[in-house]
Amino acid sequence: MEFRFNCHPLFRQRIVLINNSLLPTGFVAQHRREALDATAQISEIINFVGQLSAQAQGLSNPVTTSQKLRNSDHHIYLMFESNQKHGLVVGILKVGRKSLYVFDQNGETVNVTAPCVLDFYVHESRQRGGLGRELFDHMLKEENIHPEEMAIDRPSEKLLGFLQKHYGLYKKIPQMNNFVVYEGFFANKHHASDIDGRRMHITASPNTNLFGPTFTTVGEQLRSSSQTRQQVVSPPVVQQPPVGRYAAKRPSCSMAQIIHNSPTTVSTEPNSTSSSTNNHHAPPAASTNNNDYENHHHDHDHLHHDSAEFDREQEADPEPQPGSNNGDGVAEEVLTANMRNLSMSEPTGDYIDYHTDHHHHQLQQQQVKFADDYADIPEPEADPDPYSFHPHHLELSQQQQHQEMMTNRENSASPQSISQQQTPEHPGFKKPIRYTKQHTGLKNMSSGVGAAVMPSGKMEFDQEENEGFGSVKINRPIGKSSTRNSLSGDNDNESVHSKGSDGSHGHFDLKFYHNKLW
Ligand SMILES: CC(=O)SCCNC(=O)CCNC(=O)[C@H](O)C(C)(C)COP(=O)(O)OP(=O)(O)OC[C@H]1O[C@@H](n2cnc3c(N)ncnc32)[C@H](O)[C@@H]1OP(=O)(O)O
Prior knowledge:
The protein is of the alpha+beta class. 37% of the residues lie in helices and 12% in strands.
């Protein structure tokens, strides 16, 4: 590598050492201008040779530049070959200390500050001529170090062969980085591996990735090594019970229990309003009539009501008299009616488990009674899947609800009595058949919500057009008087019910009306 300037004044020796001053060792300048020129010339040499080295190693960017050297404490050894002209630079070797995380022979990660071979290049015209060995030996002498004590930064195949041939280095210690260290590396007194008697403990665990490496003292290492020899007995894992809101009782999904035919919890409190009291473990025969009513009533709730609706109904409906057979029969009737409306051709497994033969016989009697009461209601077709929802379920429900509402309106002087329907004390008591969203699948269908929450409040709206099944369009703000309702003379309670697609009445949640975006 020949340059445009005379290199002889720069290379007073065959191999010169250059540090961050960018002046070769032994260089003596008479004037400041000479020193500046020498620095510029050395910079040009380093950049040029570094570029050739990068090309020889197939690197996109040179490892060695004058700028990098100026900003570091690394050393560069340049080999010079004198001639009759400007002279030739034939080799370069850059070394320096680097802080590394390397594995030792035991696989333990150790942080060391070790001398490293960072760049090494001999011009192609001089390779395999012994120049490399000469340059490397000079460096080892100057650094007062052995070759196995150095870490090699991403060595090429040529350098690996070079080191094996000249220094017998072939036993590598596997590493996770690009550096190669050989056996004997950790016996080096030049390594600043220990920091205040501690060694960096690094593993490939997630903790290391999250929190970085940790220091381990020598004592801890001894303890850890002694623990590995002993049989480590890990303490048993204790399952901690859930606390806080996770410990709160979750509401049971009655529909999921029906679908999966899973056993439900048993309510031990007779007056409990829990919706999941499908009593498998307490046979009805052992209970009183009142308990029977409770259980059946809760079964009815289990099938057709969510807990909030049921609570409101419990407040509206007075409890039957203890010992009265009427309550049990009413509950059975409602249960039977609900089963009919769900097109349940056969009782479910839970249902069979629940009822004794006596109750089943009683149930059949109530079915006959119910059929007489609802003889005018068209019978739905047999449904092969009793749990699937069909539109005729809702149509039947709406027809029944409409019929019952009209009946209740006739029997009641106040419109509020819709939510306070006839009780077991009253003759001709009929439990209203109400469908929830669990049965219809419609989110905005909810029976009794408007009547229970705002029995006398004016919730009026105009239904501009019927947009389909169970949907209405409100075209004026809430509170404005309804022309249609005033003309038709409907009462307040009727105003909270919208008309379904078939002209029958449906019920909509209050949240439906309060959504201004709708
Ligand atoms: C950390 C780093 O810098 S890694 C990058 C190392 N640099 C390079 O790969 C650049 C291209 N190669 C070179 O510059 C040189 O080959 C060097 C610096 C590796 C060695 O310099 P040389 O003057 O050739 O070394 P020297 O002549 O003293 O030793 C020769 C030995 O090096 C190895 N070697 C040198 N050149 C080659 C080569 N082209 N292919 C295989 N091995 C080679 C061989 O072991 C060879 O011994 P052999 O000739 O008996 O097979």
